[in-house]
């Protein structure tokens, strides 16, 4: 039987872990004037330049209003540009700029180092198992959310 209480809540413990890792990453990238949330969106755009906002939001795990706010901020910093879609004038394609590529290239090793530093307490097998379990929980929660909408 699973124990009750916040200390045994997967969501609560994951939330604390996420916030601590996020704070560590934020501290290490502070000089780049980017937040971890902005970084994740910039990273996704660098992966696939020219995506529309909906796809960026989905790949970044963020809702549309949050993604809009982040894209506006990245555009103001000169890291991305937006171009009106040819087929749908209500949507636009987001492109990474040279400055965005440079920032992403400089920050990516910092993120990897944070992950290495935090996960050094896990064996490779534990790390792989944890990633698989978290993906399984995330996928199941997404399915449950879809069922709730029906």
UniProtKB/TrEMBL annotation:
Keyword annotations: DNA-binding, Transcription, Transcription regulation
* Keyword Nucleotide-binding among UniProt keywords: no
Q: Which Pfam families match?
A: MarR
Annotated HTH marR-type domain ranges read 1-139
A Gene Ontology molecular function term for this protein is: DNA-binding transcription factor activity
* The name this protein goes by in its record: Transcriptional regulator
Query: Which species is this record about?
Result: Paenibacillus radicis
């Amino acid at each position: 039987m699973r124990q009750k209480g916040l200390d045994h809540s997967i969501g609560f413990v994951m939330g604390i872990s996420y916030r601590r890792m996020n704070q560590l990453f934020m501290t290490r990238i502070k000089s780049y004037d980017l937040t971890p949330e902005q970084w994740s969106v910039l990273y996704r755009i660098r992966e696939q330049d020219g995506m529309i906002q909906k796809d960026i939001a989905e790949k970044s795990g963020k809702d549309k209003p949050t993604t809009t706010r982040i894209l506006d901020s990245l555009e103001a910093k000169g890291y991305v540009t937006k171009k009106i879609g040819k087929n749908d004038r209500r949507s636009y394609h987001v492109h990474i700029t040279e400055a965005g590529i440079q920032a992403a290239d400089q920050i990516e090793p910092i993120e990897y180092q944070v992950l290495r530093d935090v996960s050094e307490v896990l064996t490779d097998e534990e790390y792989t198992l944890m990633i698989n379990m978290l993906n399984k929980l995330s996928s199941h929660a997404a399915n449950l959310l879809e069922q709730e909408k029906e």
